[in-house]
Amino acid sequence: MMKFWMAPGGLHIEPGETRDAKDLARIHGQSFYRGWPSEEFERFLADKASPVYIACDARRRIAGFALIRNVADESELLTIAVDPKWRGKGLGRALMEAVFADLLLSPARCMFLEVDEQNQPAIRLYEKLGFATISSRKGYYPRPDGSAATALVMARDLG
Ligand SMILES: CC(C)(COP(=O)(O)OP(=O)(O)OC[C@H]1O[C@@H](n2cnc3c(N)ncnc32)[C@H](O)[C@@H]1OP(=O)(O)O)[C@@H](O)C(=O)NCCC(=O)NCCS
């Protein structure tokens, strides 16, 4: 089955493939203090349990992506990142909605995620999409100054 969702800015969303690993590592590295090597993305991309959704143009230039992991009836958002040039245009929301649409055909009934409690853009996005905070984890994210940030654990039913 061909998977394809429309996205703002003339882009679309489709499943990520092994060849995308370097682009995903680059965008991820622009977005987080601790990036992941492209080999890590290659492993996710090779595993059916951790699908990647990319927002890209007709020439497959990638503007953002979401990576999830499905275990039984739960799905976890491992990461979502949009190229800084493309932020604020609705791609983050479009990626999450594509994920929800795809999961309707899967056994997953609930999605979880962790987010830095100071990451307002991401928290606002998740709240708008119906996620609620269910707990927090102190000392979860390392910071450049050696301190550690608290993570909120958020959850949403998938219907
Ligand atoms: C979080 C992120 C993926 C959002 O992507 P985006 O494409 O810019 O988001 P959208 O344009 O789809 O915005 C959707 C909603 O998110 C919220 N939002 C997005 N950017 C925001 C900002 N800078 N400040 C406040 N709220 C913001 C808004 O509520 C927005 O809805 P609105 O446009 O109706 O107001 C992006 O900022 C990013 O890549 N950040 C770095 C990586 C990261 O922190 N990922 C999350 C880790 S858990």
Describe the structure.
With 159 residues, the chain is α+β, with helices and mostly antiparallel strands. The protein has a single domain (5-157), classed as Gcn5-related N-acetyltransferase (GNAT) (Aminopeptidase), CATH 3.40.630.30. 26% of the residues lie in helices and 36% in strands. The protein contains four helices and eight strands, in the order ββααβββαβαββ. The protein has helices spanning 21-31, 38-46, 91-103, 120-128; strands at 5-6, 12-15, 52-56, 62-71, 74-82, 110-116, 132-142, 148-157. The site of coenzyme A has 19 residues, from strand 5, helix 3 and helix 4.
Key features of this structure:
159 residues; Aminopeptidase; 8-stranded mixed β-sheet; 8 strands; binds coenzyme A
Question: What is shown here, in short?
Answer:
Helices cover 26% and strands 36% of the residues. It contains 4 helices and 8 strands, in the order E-E-H-H-E-E-E-H-E-H-E-E.
Layout of helices and strands:
Blueprint: E1 5-6, E2 12-15, H1 21-31, H2 38-46, E3 52-56, E4 62-71, E5 74-82, H3 91-103, E6 110-116, H4 120-128, E7 132-142, E8 148-157
Helix pairs in contact: 1-2
